Amino acid sequence: MFDCKEQVRVWNEIVDSNFIADISIGTPGEHDYSVLLNANSDAMKQIISDERQRLGSIKICIGILATMRCSCNHQEGLFDIETFYTGDEKGDNNYDYKFNVPFKTRYMPVLMATNINDTFDFGLYRIADKIDKYISYGSGWQFYRVEKIFIEVTRF
Predict the structure, then answer these.
(1) Considering Cα of 86, then 88, then 90, then 92, what sign does the dihedral take?
(2) Is 80 exceeded by the pLDDT of residue 49?
(3) 5 forms bridges with which residues in the sheet?
(4) Which of 32, 64, 80, 111 is the most exposed place for a label (fewest CB within 10 A)?
(5) CATH classification for the domain delimited by 3-66+99-136+144-155, as one of 3.90.550, 3.30.1490, 2.30.30, 3.40.50
(6) Cβ-Cβ contacts under 8 Å for 94 (sequence gap 6 or more)
(7) Residue 44 has pLDDT above 60, yes or no
């Protein structure tokens, strides 16, 4: 499920390994990031464990790329038209969509003695917190679906 790329630039950072899983439309849990991440937790923890064995002490970043949606009538005219498109283009007149919105953790150290389960759980908490902040404060944006799950790995 996860594709691995070595020595890649992710946004403005160079990472030793980047694991990405594309989430197809219709995948169970695609509309609930928590369910989807928990369903893939064993595979993700195994990747982290394998990379720690291969590279020694590492830093990891766990994240998702999400689709967000907003009611078309909510705060009309405040958003740049180039960052999203209207529901009219999808045949859905009720929502505007924004794609590939990243929600990721900071780099977390994974040393040889680090409990990977605790690190993973903390990562889920950080992602949930970032999504909650994005959709709060009357912005009108709602979480719609997960497009990709990723793990970035770099040496510590």
Answers:
(1) positive
(2) yes
(3) 18
(4) 80
(5) 3.30.1490
(6) 71, 72, 87
(7) yes
